[in-house]
Amino acid sequence: MWQTFGHEKAIRTLSRSLEAGRIAHSYLITGPAKIGKTTLALDIARAVNCSSGGTPCATCRQCQRITSALHPDVRIIGLEAARSGRLRTQISIEQVREIQRDASLLPYEGRNRVFIFESAEKLSGEAANSLLKTLEEPPDNVIIILVASDLNAVLPTLISRCRSIALRTTPLSAVSEFLV
Predict the structure, then answer these.
(1) Fewer CB atoms < 10 Å away: N or C end of the chain?
(2) CATH (domain of 52)
(3) How many whole angstroms separate alpha carbon 155 and alpha carbon 96?
């Protein structure tokens, strides 16, 4: 059961890829703020690790642990607080290097390791270039998902290494119908 609402085209495309066994090693999910980009990224993580395979079931241990943010093979990387306690303004090269170390390890519990970079447009230049190396030679069983609200701020070489999924606003009529 996909948690993502209003983006049926993206879900159909991902479902077909999963059924065909052709899941990409990296995705770039773009769209306006608060539209469901991270929700879709987590749906991908559930789908590639779901015990029932294919569509995320939301009931197996893998899906539940991902939903609860307790799965050891799924990480969200963002503008976390620095040691000073203040939020970072960029995703640092240290954060990317930590992910590269983790990506070199086999999955601990699931079938795949999934790394979700929220605010990918905030990758520092060094971090983006370092991540590029991982995207060019991805380890087996690793999926990297970049989430960005501003596609123009993402390094073009990163864009070219990822399968793009552009999310658009959901029509108000569809939202109303869903809620009724």
Answers:
(1) C
(2) 3.40.50.300
(3) 15
